[in-house]
Amino acid sequence: MRLDKFLSNMGTASRSEAAKAARGGLVTVNSVPCRDVSKHIDPERDVIYFNGKRVTYEKFRYILLNKPDGVVSATEDGRDKTVLDLLPAELRKFELFPCGRLDKHTLGLVLITDNGDLAHRLLAPKSHVTKKYRYESKFPLTDEEKRTLEEGTILDDGYETKPSEIELYDDRKSGTITLTEGKYHQIKRMFESVNNKITYLERITFGPLTLEGVPERGDWRYLTESEIEALEKHGKN
Questions:
Q1: Domain count of the chain?
Q2: What is the pLDDT of residues 76-89, one digit of tens each?
Q3: Active site (annotated) includes residue 157
Q4: Which pLDDT does position 237 carry in this prediction?
Q5: Residue numbers of the domain that contains 164
Q6: CATH number, residue 150
């Protein structure tokens, strides 16, 4: 990989900025100043410094975000703030996108990455990646309604949902629901199919990921190596 492409891909500098810094002796490869950014390097083996700071190679980025209310799960939007707008400017240089979508008023866990292949595999129906949500509803669920939702209900467009799992809290108007699919407004439409209405919805897990480490709305963090490995395993199912 060319040195200037490496620095650009890592979000360190544009190619023109990299060339200017190199001419000024601010770029080193394995402790040797490099004034020609067309030089080819091995990003996984060579040690690169830019303006005194080491540039570490990352093929992909994986970010866990706790989405607030009113923020849309998109890369850009003409009216509303997006999940990418909650990240610092240096991260927005990359081609990041949310892996799956949460509704504008649904809160909680969003995975943001630039690994399109893994995202596609995680969202594929055959992967059966579980998503757990904490919810509140307008009316209590009866045992019969709970069973209907868990076994599979018919949505307004005729789609029959796959089996789900519901844990009811004592008031029967709140609990958790776990799905292995993610149709448009699915949980809201599921509850509407039994003449109920969702009043609060928060995603609390996505496959092996939880909200640990991002307790406040708008918080974010990088995934750990073990979390990335766990995601890769889910994507191979």
A1: 3
A2: 988 999 999 999 98
A3: no
A4: 62
A5: 130-206
A6: 3.30.70.1560
